[in-house]
Amino acid sequence: MHAVVVTGRPPRWMPPVLDAAAHKSTLICANWAIVLDSES
């Protein structure tokens, strides 16, 4: 299963969220300005 995390927050806020979710996913941060792969 592939999950996408979308937030208006900057990428530096995401590590605790990903730790709590216990899986890797695609991140869309900073109001769609930044798209990241959390595994890289």
What would you note in describing this structure?
- The protein is of the alpha+beta class and 40 residues long.
- Helices cover 20% and strands 28% of the residues.
- The protein is built from one helix and three strands.
- It is globular.
Which helices and strands occur, and which strands form pairs?
Blueprint: E1 4-6, H1 14-21, E2 26-29, E3 34-37
Parallel strand pairs: 1-2
Antiparallel strand pairs: 2-3
What is the element string, with H for helices and E for strands? EHEE
Q: What is the number of helical segments per DSSP (H or I, 4+ residues)?
A: 1
Number of domains: 1
Low-confidence residue ranges = none
Largest sheet: 3 strands, mixed
| Rg of Cα set | 9 Å
Give the gist of this structure.
By secondary structure, this protein is of the alpha+beta class. The chain is built from one helix and three strands.
